[in-house]
Design brief:
Elements lengths: L4 H12 L5 H29 L1 E21 L5 E21 L2 H32 L8
Antiparallel strand pairs: 1-2
Helix pairs in contact: 1-2, 2-3
């Protein structure tokens, strides 16, 4: 796991930079693609470990709800009443999808190679960000 320490550190820096200092924002931009490839690699490795992938689909269903209706009362004023009505509800369903292990292994190997290249580029980018946007030390 020690070989993944720089990757984890770079990923953590990227997460901290969402709305941070100019240096943190620069680091986030420099490590964005590395974080994406790292997440994809984790997904592929999980698929291989399980033997299947997860996919999601939207499922629509109907359910009863209380709907507001505006009606005129006997005195002529508008009143709001609630009446039962049907509404469409959207939900997300996860389901298993078979994988081709050989294709997933090729994908994993390609992502590992890409991650190695991106790690070197991100490390250089982080150094450049730190040089371009040095952070001041707090006065003591």
């Amino acid at each position: 796991m020690a070989r993944n320490a720089p990757i984890a550190a770079l990923a953590a820096l990227g997460l901290l930079a969402a709305c941070g200092t100019p240096q943190e924002q620069c680091i986030s931009r420099q490590t964005r693609e590395l974080r994406t490839v790292t997440n994809l690699l984790a997904e592929v490795e999980g698929n291989l470990a399980r033997g299947y992938a997860w996919e999601e689909r939207e499922v629509l269903s109907r359910e009863w709800d209380d709907c507001a209706r505006v009606v005129r009362g006997r005195n002529g004023e508008r009143d709001v009443i609630f009446v039962p009505c049907m509404r469409t509800v959207s939900d997300t369903e996860r389901y298993r999808v078979p994988i081709d292990p050989a294709a997933e292994m090729r994908k994993r190997d390609g992502l590992r190679e890409r991650r190695a290249v991106l790690t070197r580029q991100a490390e250089a980018g982080v150094r450049a960000c730190r040089a371009a946007y040095p952070e001041e030390k707090p006065a003591q």
